[in-house]
Design brief:
The protein is an all-alpha fold. The chain has a single domain, classed as Orthogonal Bundle (Helix Hairpins). 90% of the residues lie in helices and 0% in strands. It has two helices and no strands.
């Protein structure tokens, strides 16, 4: 009985960790989607800036500086995407491990409760006096 209670408490803790890990995965996926859309927008901005005609040196210098800043931001967002993909992979692996641990604990609880029920049934069978059938 004590072992079952301990396993139930452990199961509750694993579920709590599992929920935290699920939230982490969802947050990382949302962040990845945001960064991907930002990256696409930056690429569209860069493509639109290059199409404009430039007539004087000052405008050329300004557009080149702007293009450099946009390209830097694109590189930053690309690196962020790579990082988030690695984090999502790690987080999903942890989530899978937690799910396996929870499954093992559930199987142990089921096994121990089944043993306890069988023990109780056996005890009650032994306590019931045998009746003769005529």
């Amino acid at each position: 009985m004590i072992k079952i209670k301990r396993l139930n408490n452990l199961k509750i803790l694993k579920e709590k960790k599992l929920n935290i890990q699920r939230n982490e995965v969802l947050t990382l996926v949302k962040e990845l989607d945001k960064i991907k859309t930002i990256n696409e927008r930056l690429k569209n901005i860069l493509a639109n800036v290059k199409k404009k005609k430039i007539t004087n040196a000052r405008d050329l210098s300004d557009t080149n500086n702007f293009n450099i800043k946009i390209i830097d931001q694109i590189h930053v967002s690309d690196n962020r995407i790579k990082f988030l993909k690695e984090e999502i992979k790690r987080s999903r692996k942890n989530l899978g491990n937690l799910m396996q641990h929870k499954k093992v604990i559930k199987n142990k609880i089921d096994y121990l409760t089944r043993l306890q029920i069988d023990k109780i049934e056996k005890r009650t069978e032994e306590n019931i006096p045998n009746t003769r059938k005529p």
